[in-house]
Write a structure and sequence with these properties.
This protein is an alpha+beta fold. It has 6 helices and 14 strands. Helix 1 packs parallel to helix 6.
Length: 265
């Protein structure tokens, strides 16, 4: 397959494969590929809360590209091939495993609520949790027993998913620590990728401030989607700050990706 010279299809003629809350998947230019398009929609509490936040999709596309490219580079397999434009990336088509894999380093969110642990408490070790991806059921937490009994993943696949989750957590923790950000927790998804007769589990979906809790090391300021969930405001500013610290977006670059940009002489 030649990924260098994709045949671009105008948006209107592309076949839409799937539309989620924050992304759309289109048929890709080659068999076995898809185009992942990042929308500006923000939802929380299973889409009970919804807003369009201009620039969010562009920022998540860039930040997720950065994370997935680095994961590929260190040998953590992912679905990511390359970014195509401000809102889209070329990915490998995988069979999504219907689990949200959450890794936690610091207590926050639903863990704090469920177990009565104050937000910000360092956990004794990283904790991996599984949630069954099912909007009708509100993505309930499940155990390995449920996952194997209902056939969502085999015991070997669960081992592979947990090994991937630990590697991603180690990589992300170091990456963010280096730019003054604490990785409190994050969610990742995985998929089955077939190559000839071989199948392996790869990291899929996105890893962005929509799916992580990121706190400034010094001020504990939230630089993630909790700004939207908790009505704190300043979401685009926070995501832009993450992008800038990672060296993704230069000073003065606009996440909207349209309109004139002031050029300093
Ligand atoms: P939680 O504390 O609400 O369970 O969230 C744990 C992590 O997972 C947090 O980084 C936010 C992320 N997350 C998602 O990406 N999607 C979701 O639907 C939920 C509930 C959480």
């Amino acid at each position: 397959m030649d990924f260098q010279k994709p045949r671009y299809t105008p948006m209107s003629r592309r076949r839409r494969i799937y539309e989620g809350k924050a992304k759309v998947l289109y048929e890709g230019p080659e068999p076995g590929t898809l185009i992942q398009h990042f929308k500006d929609d923000a939802t929380a509490f299973n889409a009970k809360k919804h807003e369009v936040i201009e620039g969010k999709g562009v920022l998540n596309n860039r930040i997720s590209e950065y994370v997935f490219q680095h994961l590929n580079d260190i040998g953590v397999p992912t679905h990511f091939i390359r970014r195509l434009n401000m809102r889209e990336q070329l990915i490998r088509e995988v069979e999504i495993i219907p689990l949200e894999v959450v890794v936690r380093n610091v207590a926050a969110g639903s863990l704090s609520q469920r177990l009565g642990i104050e937000e910000g408490t360092q956990l004794p070790r990283s904790i991996i949790e599984f949630y069954y991806k099912n909007d009708k059921l509100n993505d309930p937490m499940v155990s390995e027993e449920h996952i194997t009994a209902f056939g969502w993943a085999s015991p070997q696949e669960i081992d592979d998913i947990m090994a991937l989750a630990i590697r991603v957590n180690d990589f992300l923790s170091g990456l963010f620590l280096g730019v003054g950000i604490r990785l409190v927790d994050f969610k990742m998804e995985t998929g089955r990728l077939w190559e000839n007769d071989m199948m392996r589990i790869v990291v899929a979906d996105e890893i962005s401030p929509d799916s992580c809790r990121l706190w400034d090391i010094k001020s504990n300021e939230k630089l993630d989607k909790d700004r939207f969930r908790r009505d704190l405001g300043g979401l685009v500013e926070a995501y832009t700050e993450v992008a800038k610290r990672l060296g993704i977006m230069g000073e003065g670059e606009r996440p909207q990706g349209s309109g004139p940009v002031l050029v300093k002489s």
